[in-house]
Amino acid sequence: MTIASAPGKVIISGEHSVVYGQPALAGALNLRCTAQLQNADKGLVIHAKDLNADLIYSPDDLQAVTQQQPVHQGFDNLAGAVLSVQDPNDIAYSVSISSEIPIGAGLGSSAATSVAIVAALRAHLDQPFDKQDISDLAFRAEKIAHGTPSGIDNTVASLGGLVHFQAGESRSISLDHEIPLIIANSNIPRNTKELVMRVRQRKNTIGPFMDDLLQHMGDLTQMIESSLLDSDLERAGQLFDINHGLLDAIGVNHPKLAQLVTMAREAGAKGAKLTGAGGGGCMIALVDESSKDIVRAAMNLPGVDIYQTSISGRGVELR
Ligand code: PMV
């Protein structure tokens, strides 16, 4: 049996402004997905513990996935991950998946799973452990289930640490220390496409002033990156707060996120902001050792899921 694991991701700064060519910064979480792969009968069985489901692919089903025909709608990236490494006719595996990453919360659970599966299968076949190759193959798999992903999620899940993203190009920044972070998932559904459209409409109505805001958001991303690398949590936290203010200004805040951000700050977080598309979904609070338990307790509202985690240097790993 071969076992591999990969981290989820969080957008630290640069959501929305990245759509207009500004830089974005994402980080690997120490919430991980693990894939265990072993030989089995022809075809593929995926035991997805967190979905409470077994996804079964006959050789014909695998052929269908290679032709972009959906078999298990929304989850075919998992079969795609195996198919990115091997021909449908050679596949005879069972894969068990277990994950600490919440599903559908914008925290990269899908890409982490694809990356873990690709890494486990390549190790099983004695192929070299090359993180960039693993990322590229997982990206192919992600396109099967998710259309046009940006590539941020698979890059972070493979390389770990911080990833700087701009105009489709990514640069990985290794991290030699962990950055403590609390993530709160409001569980309020949001539609990324709609929120991106909302920002575009505001930009059309308001004009160049919005361009200035988006430019400032890019500048903040650069400053947050250097503050985190210097372990200057005080400065990074204040920059988080400013970034959240600008995300509110461009129209993607939500009352629940605003409440969580305020509670985190009042409880002693260094800073707090929404993360991802906004309009619901998750927020993040930057904390230190002394404040993390108090902040966590303060944000514990009904219906909200809290993850006490950290940004970590660990990318994909074999075990
Ligand atoms: O919805 P999420 O958490 O995957 O984040 C979307 C980030 C945006 O910048 C709003 C959109 C994008 O494609 O970059």
What can you see in these coordinates?
The chain is an alpha+beta fold and 319 residues long. The protein has 2 domains: 2-174, Ribosomal Protein S5, domain 2, CATH 3.30.230; 179-311, GHMP kinase, C-terminal domain (Alpha-Beta Plaits), CATH 3.30.70. 40% of the residues lie in helices and 26% in strands. The protein has helices at residues 59-66, 76-83, 109-124, 131-146, 152-159, 192-206, 208-229, 233-249, 255-266, 292-298; strands spanning 2-13, 24-39, 43-48, 53-57, 92-99, 162-166, 169-173, 179-185, 271-275, 282-286, 305-311, 317-318. The strands form 2 sheets. Strands 1, 2, 3, 4, 5, 6, 7 and 12 form an 8-stranded mixed sheet that branches. It has a 4-stranded antiparallel sheet with strand order 9-10-8-11. A hairpin with a 6-residue loop joins strand 9 (271-275) and strand 10. The protein is globular, with a radius of gyration of 20 Å. The model has no long low-confidence stretch (mean pLDDT 95). (3R)-3-hydroxy-3-methyl-5-(phosphonooxy)pentanoic acid binds at residues 11, 15-16, 18-19, 106, 150, 192, 196, 276-277.
**Distance, first to last CA:** 10 Å
At CATH level 3, the topology of the largest domain is Ribosomal Protein S5, domain 2
Sheet of most strands: 8 strands, mixed
Strand content: 25-35%
So how many helices? 10
What integer is the average pLDDT?
95
Q: Tell me how many strands there are.
A: 12
Q: Segments where pLDDT lies below 50 for 5+ residues?
A: none
Attached small molecules: (3R)-3-hydroxy-3-methyl-5-(phosphonooxy)pentanoic acid
Order of helices and strands: EEEEHHEHHHEEEHHHHEEHEE
Helix/strand-derived category reads alpha+beta
